[in-house]
Amino acid sequence: MELLRDSMYSAILLLIHLDAETLFIIWVSLKVSGLSTLIASLIGIPAGLLIAQSTFPGKRFVLTCLNTLLALPTVVIGLVVYAFISRRGTFGSLGLLYTQEAMIIGQVILIVPLVTSLTIAAVSKLDKRYRLSAMTLGADRLQTALVIFSEARFGIFAAVIAAFGRVIAEVGIGMMLGGNAKGFTRTMTTAMALEYDKGEYVLAVALGIVLMSIAFAVNLLFQFFQGRTRTDAV
Amino acid sequence: MLYELTGVEKVLGGRKIFEIPAFSIRSERIYSLTGPNGAGKTTLLKILAFLDRPSTGQIRFCDRMVPQVESELLELRRQVVMVDQSPLLFTRTVAANVGYGLKLRKVPSAERRKRVIEALELVGMEKFLRTEAHRLSGGETKRVALARALAIRPKVLLCDEPTANVDSENQRIILDILAGINRREKTSILFSTHYQSLEQQLAHSSLHLQHGRLSESQINDVFDAELIEHDNEQAFCRLAGKAILRLPRRLVPEEPFFTVRIEQEKIRLATEEEPARTAGTPVTGRVVRVEESSGAIRVGVDCGIVLHLTLSGRLYAEQPIPVGASAVIIIPDDAVRCLANNGSRDRG
Question: Across the interface, which of A133, A135, A138 has its CB nearest the CB of B88?
Answer without folding.
Answer: A133
